[in-house]
């Protein structure tokens, strides 16, 4: 059974171990070197101050994590956020990512987020399929926007509307409270 819960600082060394292969051995992340635990912790602290940062675990084993962060720092964008997810290879294809995103998206709805965006490396077919399965649609394709591991890489932006839009002024974004 998979449990979804908020990440804690004690989870960060394992989350960094999950993330590092995406940096070092793939083009799924545009980071060129794995962050230090200190840098990873600082990023976590900044994100979780306002946005959900969730992990999936089963029998005490961390399987993956996801989080949201501001799409832009301009006030007019407060109703949109960018989402990120990383899973251990053994957890892929097991619906762990779907469970993580469902929990994340519900929390974002509760924070008055209407749109979520995912920026995905064009060659990351598994992530593109996963996001499409979760209801995201391609809204932008940037050619040769990054260079890593000796190759130019495209980025694809995908978007999902979490709740219906209206012409009325939406309630302001509510930062995370716990």
TrEMBL record:
InterPro entries: Acyl_CoA_acyltransferase, GNAT_dom. Residues 2-163 form the N-acetyltransferase domain. It holds the Pfam family Acetyltransf_4. Gene3D superfamilies: 3.40.630.30. One of its GO terms (molecular function) is acyltransferase activity, transferring groups other than amino-acyl groups. This is N-acetyltransferase domain-containing protein. It comes from Weissella minor.
């Amino acid at each position: 059974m998979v449990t979804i819960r908020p990440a804690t600082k004690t989870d960060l060394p394992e989350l960094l171990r999950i993330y590092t292969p995406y940096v070092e051995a793939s083009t799924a992340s545009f980071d060129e070197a794995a962050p230090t635990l200190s840098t990873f912790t600082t990023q976590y602290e900044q994100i979780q101050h306002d946005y959900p940062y969730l992990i999936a675990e089963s029998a005490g084993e961390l399987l993956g994590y996801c989080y949201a962060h501001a799409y832009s720092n301009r006030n007019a964008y407060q109703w949109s956020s960018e989402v990120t997810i990383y899973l251990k290879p053994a957890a892929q294809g097991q619906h762990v990512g779907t469970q993580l995103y469902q929990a994340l998206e519900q929390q974002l709805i509760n924070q008055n987020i209407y749109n979520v965006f995912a920026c995905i490396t064009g060659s990351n077919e598994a992530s593109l399929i996963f996001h499409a399965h979760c209801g995201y649609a391609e809204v932008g394709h940037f050619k040769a926007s990054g260079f890593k591991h000796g190759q130019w890489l495209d980025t694809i932006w995908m978007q999902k509307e979490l709740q219906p839009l209206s012409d009325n002024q939406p309630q302001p974004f509510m930062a995370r409270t716990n």
